[in-house]
């Protein structure tokens, strides 16, 4: 029941006057947008560029990445030895092998220096040698430290700064972007669902002037991209904040207990094997990874370390991988981690990268991620022009009375 005071307030409120809550939302959207716009633009543009990095790299480095198929591949240990000779004193950190017969195998060396301020100082070297698995010939060498897409990735990740400095900036800018999406939805929501309001909210009036088209691009495209943009932002926050990753895990797993991690080691060093332990481990893992398109190998890096062999079920995706650990001296299996045995929280965290880049949806998913990232990049620009247009308009109104005084 409406009281007399409430009725009086309602009757005396000026038409079109906004409530306090709406004014707060408007100001929050404006000032947070102006404060974070450049960072959001950089994050969105680099995310947009990175979506199709595999396809573009395969064109750029086609000669290095592809080979003519033959009948039999050489032992992994021999291919590793030849790759190591090419890399010199830079130890091989990981190996990517392919079930596809026309692909070269990649041997990668990487060393970080976490004391530096920028990306180029943080990475001492990041190189790969691509080897023909049938002949052992070096197909090519790629210095990823100065390659286009790794640099794009690190701009997206931490603005080319050391992760400890750059990622908090990216992370909190992403949090602000989430707030902007929510406040933007409140501002977009029509007061009345009339036909005119629906047309204004859901359609871009291309035949109108620049200001109206710009407003529609910000307003309408912001609405249509909202859900996917939120997904992209929230998956980015998983990497930026440990607390958010834990929250996602707890929400999906339904438990606050972290997954158990079993540590396995090799030894003793005096143990012997009836062959090369790395080849034994690689051969043992093959039937266990029969569904994998790519098989990765992390050779043991220290005396107690193990060889880890796992597989990815596709060219792009990284979730769903099974991993097996082997004694580096005997090649005997000492541990394993199977994706199907993980809980929902572990599975969702494992999917995070593939969701973030759209790869989880295949080519259509990557196209959607590309388009939405492009729209997200446009929002700070169109939003700035909306604000700038209002500023110019308010200045013109302020100048008119002065102009009249000068003519008196």
Q: How does this model look, in words?
A:
The chain has 408 residues and is α+β, with helices and mostly antiparallel strands. It contains 15 helices and eight strands. It has helices at 4-12, 20-50, 53-60, 62-65, 76-87, 119-122, 148-158, 163-188, 195-202, 210-224, 226-240, 242-253, 277-285, 344-356, 362-407; strands spanning 94-98, 105-112, 123-131, 138-143, 294-298, 306-312, 322-327, 333-337. It has an eight-stranded antiparallel β-sheet with strand order 4-3-2-1-5-6-7-8. Strand 3 and strand 4 (138-143) form a beta hairpin. Helix 8 crosses helix 10 (210-224) and helix 11 crosses helix 14. It is elongated and about 85 Å long. The model is unreliable at 8-12 and 402-408 (pLDDT under 50).
Main sheet: which strands, in order across?
A: 4-3-2-1-5-6-7-8
Mean pLDDT over the residues: 91
Tell me about the largest β-sheet. 8 strands, antiparallel
- Let me know the number of strands: 8
Low-confidence stretches at least 5 residues in length (pLDDT < 50)? Answer: 8-12, 402-408
Classify the oligomer: single chain
Please tell me what the overall shape is. elongated
Q: What is this structure's SSE topology?
A:
Blueprint (H helix, E strand, L loop, with lengths): L3 H9 L7 H31 L2 H8 L1 H4 L10 H12 L6 E5 L6 E8 L6 H4 E9 L6 E6 L4 H11 L4 H26 L6 H8 L7 H15 L1 H15 L1 H12 L23 H9 L8 E5 L7 E7 L9 E6 L5 E5 L6 H13 L5 H46 L1
Helix pairs in contact: 2-7, 2-8, 2-15, 8-10, 8-11, 10-15, 11-12, 11-14, 12-14
Core attributes:
elongated; 408 residues; disordered C terminus; single chain; alpha+beta; 12% strand; 15 helices; eight-stranded antiparallel beta sheet
